[in-house]
Amino acid sequence: MSLADPRAIEVVDSHTEGEPTRVVVAGWPKVEGETMIDRREFLARHHDHLRRSVVTEPRGHDAIVGALLLPPVEPGSHAGVVFFNDVGYLGMCGHGLMGVARTMASMGMGPSDHLTIDTPAGTVHARLLGEAEVEIRNVPPLVHRRDLVIEVPSLGSVVGDVVYGGNWFFLTQIPNEPLVYARRDRLLELALLIRNALAEGGVTGVEGAIIDHVEFSGPPTRPDADSKNFVLCPGRAYDRSPCGTGTSAKLGLLHAKGLLEPGEQYRQESITGSLFSGRLEEEGGLLIPYLRGSAHITAHSNLRFDPSDPYRWGFSV
Ligand code: PYC
After folding, report:
1. 161 CA distance to ligand 1 centroid (A)?
2. How far is 253 from 251, CA to CA, in rounded Å?
3. Are 217 and 73 in contact (CB under 8 A)?
4. Do 220 and 109 reside in the same domain of the chain?
5. Nearest CA to ligand 1 atom 5
6. Residue 107 belongs to what domain range?
């Protein structure tokens, strides 16, 4: 324990379409860095034990996405946010941004209707609509590789696309493997096999970026959805929500395939049956994803760090 380590950290928990977010609102020591990317690096170098302490066991679990609220880096923004999870840091997080927006509103932080937030992936926006609904404006998606064939041990050839939506995704479909919640362990196993095959085959995003999310698509269960997904997050957790960055990547891919026009609604069902609705808008020569979902506050707590607790910084993976 260093002198800078806190004895308590104040957090607000929420879930967005079933996927949890834990926003750190006070108690975190000073984070240095002029840009959000510099700050993320600072956190990884100096505060990684605090990341673990907030989201991993015994205080958390592997599905929780943490969000550290910081001062903004861009003029006109209301806050900066670095998202993190049980294994590291994210560029952006769509469900997390909806949780951040609801949390900030519940704490009276920033304007009550429209928030501009700096993240390592870029500046994003959130608009609060009614009691729970939030619309976010994400960073533009980027389709990097189309119809890539990879060989996956015990699965054979798998065809998919490498797409950025704020994080890097491999988007694919696995025939004969229904996307049903009761089969989530099997889907997790398949997604892990694919992610390992991508890493072993040296398949990356732009500039060697690791592809840490795998997204399966299939027919929807809900009559009001266009498609259903299962998304493997960077560790071994799957997304309970339809995944905001994954849905952004999907919108970009559908557009690249000529299957989605700007302005057209697309409704993405998650493996748990929850829903995001989204669309792309053409703005300044870029395609911008807009996504809507609902976030609800579930707790407001003080995490305590007892110096005599051997697990006060959580478990290291
Ligand atoms: O909603 O973008 C998202 C997300 C990423 C990881 C978990 N959720």
Report:
1. 18
2. 5
3. no
4. no
5. 93
6. 8-139+297-304
| Lowest mean pLDDT segment, chosen from 35-39, 191-195, 216-220, 312-316 | 312-316
Question: CB-based contacts of 228: which residues, under 8 Å, 6+ apart?
Answer: 179, 217, 218, 219, 220, 221, 222, 268, 269, 270, 271
Phi, psi for 260 (deg, rounded to 5): -145, 125
Arithmetic mean of pLDDT over the chain: 97
Task: Say which CATH number the domain at 221 has.
Answer: 3.10.310.10
* Rounded Cα distance, 273 and 259, in Å: 23
Does the CB atom of residue 247 touch ligand 1 within 6 A?
no
- pLDDT value at 284 more than 80: yes
- Catalytic, 233? Answer no
- Local confidence band at 317 (pLDDT 50, 70, 90 cut-offs): low
Q: Specify the number of domains making up the chain.
A: 2
Are residues 117 and 36 part of one domain? Answer: yes
| pLDDT at position 315 over 90 | no
Distance, CA of 66 to CA of 83 (rounded, Å):
6
Provide the pLDDT for residue 97.
98
- Residues 158, 125 share a domain: no
Q: Is 93 in the pocket of ligand 1 (CB under 6 A)?
A: yes
Which 3 state secondary structure label does DSSP give 44? Answer: helix
In the reported structure, the alpha carbon of residue 88 is separated from the centroid of ligand 1 by a whole-number distance in angstroms of 13
Judge contact between 21 and 99, C-beta under 8 A: yes
> 316 in a domain, yes or no?
no
Q: Are both 164 and 286 inside the same structural domain?
A: yes
Distance between CA 88 and CA 220 in Å, rounded? 31
List the beta strands (DSSP E) in the chain.
8-16, 19-26, 65-70, 79-84, 114-119, 122-129, 133-137, 142-152, 156-164, 168-172, 213-218, 227-232, 266-269, 275-283, 286-304
Instruction: Say how many Å lie between the CA of residue 257 and the centre of ligand 1.
Output: 23
